Every structure is written in C-alpha cells, then in structure tokens.
Amino acid sequence: MTFIRTVLSLTLLAGLANPAAAQFGIIEQGAKRAKQVSDFNWSDEEKAALGAKVSTLVRQRYGVVQDTAVHKYVTLVGRTVTDKSTKPGLPWTFIVLDTDAVNAFAAPHGYVHITRGALALMKDEAELAGVLAHEIIHVTEEHTIDALKKNTIKSAAAEEVAGGNAMIEFLANAAYNNILDNAYSRGDESAADTMGITLISKAGYAPQALGNFLTTLAERNKSATEKRGLFSSHPEMEARQGKLGAAIIKGKLSGTQLVSERFKTTIRYKPVPQSQIATVEAGTKGLAGGSSQKGSTAKDSKSTSTAKAEAPAEAPKKKGFGLGRLVSGGGSETKSAQVVGSGGARGLDPEKDAKGGSNPAVVAVKFTPAELQAFKKAGSLT
User: Fold this and answer.
1) Which of 324, 268, 264 lies closest to 296, judged by CA?
2) β-pair type (313-314, 327-328)
3) Which of 16, 180, 258, 300 is spaced 20 to 30 A from 10 at the CA atom?
4) Listed GO molecular functions (predicted)?
C-alpha cells in the first residue's frame, strides 16, 4: 500500500541518520516524517485496519459484555441512527464494554463502544440513541483521525518508529490513548453534540434526550473535583445545554419518541456511584473480574466470534515522547491488572481507570433488514 511504502521510506531515512548528527538535523527529519503522515490521504482499507486495532485495544482494556440480546438491542438502536447518517454503508459495529464506568468511545470505520455503566444511567432508548449518535458523528466526521494528526504527529516529530507494521501499531495506540483521554477538540465535541441530536431526530427520537442524559450525568458527577469520563472535554454543562436547546429550535427538530418501555425491559443494569467504581493500576491489561450479565434480562451466551486478539505488550517508555501508554507489538512484559480500590484511589480516574471484564471477544450480532424495519416500526421510528 502507498501508506506502508511511505512509512518504510521514512523509516529508512531514520535508520540512515548519522548517530553524531546535530540535534537540528534529527528534528528536521522527524518533522518531515510527521508532515508526510499528517498529509496522508487514508484509504478505506487503512481506516478499517486502524479502527479494528483501536477497538481491540479498547476491548482488551475493559472486556466485553458477553450477552447477545443486549448487543443486538444496542446494535438495532445504533443502526436505526446510522441509517440517517452520511455513511450508512460503513460496517458499523456496536460493542458494550464490561465495566461500571460511564463512558463511550468511537474508533475509525464504524466502531462504537459504550459501557454497561453508561447504559445503567440511562432512562430510555432515546438517551441511548443520543449517546450513540454523538459517537457516530465522531466516526462519520473522522474526528478520531483528525485528533490523531493534531495530538500525535507533532509528538512523533522527533521519534523514530521502526518498520511499517510498527507504524500502524504506533498510530493505533496513539489513537487509543487519545480517545481514552477525550482528546477531541472542543469544536469536534460540539459538532458531535449538535449533529448527533439532528441525527436522532431524523430517526424519530426526541432530540432532548441527549440533554436529559447529560443532566443525569452532571447530577451523578456533582461531587467530582475533576471532569472525567464521558464528554469530559466539553464546555461547561450550562453552556452546552444551551447550545443543544438552541440547535433544537434552529433546526426545527421534531422527533418525539423516547421508547422507554422497550429500553427498560432489555437493559436492567444498576448504576454504580462514581466514588464506588473499582479501579485498577494504570498501565495494566487483562483486567480481572467484572460481571458481564449483572442486571440484564438476557441469558448468558458465548461469543460467536472466533477471533480473540492477543493482548498487547507494553513498550518501554521513550524519552521525550508525548503519549504515556504507547503499546507495541513485541517484546516487553505487560503488568498484570491490580485492583486498587474504589474510584479515586491513588489518584486514579474512576471512569478511565475502572476495572473491567476479562473477555475481550466481540459478540457477533445477526439481524435481517426486515427485523430492523420491524424494530423501527415498533418504536414509531423512521
């Protein structure tokens, strides 16, 4: 691929550098390398590879709820929304992460992750649609790739990355760290809000639902001393709610459906206060425990996925590198997960550093177009 050839040529430049070269020369080479990557026009194949790798890292970090019924329900809601998006044909994959933390993550090329902690905090299907739509907009507008360019490439300017495969690992791990740190720009976050509620309204859901969820989230987090977890990089809540209200009026958004009963009969997780969320030591993998079924009405089911990715290994830290948890494909041993107590213990972020489940396998979901249409009709959606 053009991308890999570019990476290999850049790597050769780095490898041929004279060890005694002046610092300016090294930085200049790195800057050229960074610019070429930043300017690269990603193909769909490369976006798919990046998204798949990022999703693997997220799933290995938090585990996946192994419940086919819950995944099918979330997927049907998500696909109801994506049908109204600018990219309905992407291979959309909706994944419920096995953690009490309240969070959601988007990865390129159609990967949307939401935690069971977020589901537990919601009151109706429209709120679920609103949060999924926010992440869907991050995908369709390619905010993750934009954040990768802005927040990572400049950090990599003086960094040597050896080999074509290592470069895709580097980019995927950088993107993973960006989404865990909510590294989207304020403009991208605001766009995801306003475009997201427009999207759910087109599908028939009440656009006020996202604001309703945010109100619940703000109440839950009122005692927190820092902005954490879902939408933590957004403007202050009052201003944000005001923008959502103005967008509903300006756009004449007319969706009305909340679909409360269907949500309540399918999703029965119980919310855990932020102060009581078990956390694990930063930098660990293979997180132990985490109930994958608690609160759900569905019976346990084994994943139909046969591809269980290997856990990544933690690379040695490199001096001067701006991303703290870079993971590479080889070599060094990764620390085992260690539960260190409830949220806030040892200064950990109870949302990002939350304990997760141990099974990262994707739960395959199958449905027919007729099933999706029946789902929409039952909820008076379009």
Assistant:
1) 268
2) antiparallel
3) 180
4) metal ion binding; metalloendopeptidase activity
CA–CA gap between residue 297 and residue 340 (Å, rounded): 30
Residue 314's pLDDT is what? Answer: 36
Each residue of 11-32: pLDDT tens digit? 333 333 444 444 334 345 445 5
Phi, psi of 343 (to 5 degrees): -50, 135
Residue type, 125: E
Could you give the CA distance from residue 223 to residue 119 in angstroms, rounded to a whole number?
A: 21
- Cβ count within 10 A of residue 69: 15
Which of 264, 265, 267, 136 lies closest to 203 in space, CA to CA? 136
pTM higher than 0.85, yes or no?
Answer: no
Token readout for 379 is 């909820």
pLDDT confidence of residue 163: 44
> DSSP of 69-97, one letter per residue?
HHHHHHHHHHHHHHTTSS-TTS--EEEEE
Tokens of 271: 């919310």
In the chain, at which residue ranges do the beta strands (DSSP E only) sit? 93-97, 104-107, 111-115, 279-280, 313-314, 327-328, 339-341
CA–CA distance, 29 with 160 (Å, rounded to integer): 10
Query: DSSP states of 306-323 as a string?
Result: ---PPPPEEPPP-TT-S-
Query: Which residue type, as a one-letter code, is found at position 216?
Result: T
How far is Cα 48 from Cα 1, in angstroms, rounded to an integer?
14
Q: Which two tokens stand for residue 256?
A: 């009305």
What are the extents of the domains in the chain? 44-278+286-310+340-378
Predicted pLDDT at 122: 98
* pLDDT, position 183: 77
Reported as a single tens digit per residue, the pLDDT across 37-48 is: 555 567 888 899
For the chain, the farthest-separated pair of C-alpha atoms sits apart, in whole angstroms, at 70
Strand 313-314 with 279-280, pairing:
unpaired
* Four-residue CA torsion sign, 75, 80, 86, 88: positive
- Distance of alpha carbon 298 from alpha carbon 205, whole angstroms: 25
- Residues 21, 23: Cα–Cα separation, whole Å: 6
Return the structure tokens found at 313: 């290994």
Q: Find out whether 202 and 160 touch, Cβ atoms under 8 Å.
A: no
CA 367, distance to chain mean position in Å, is 24
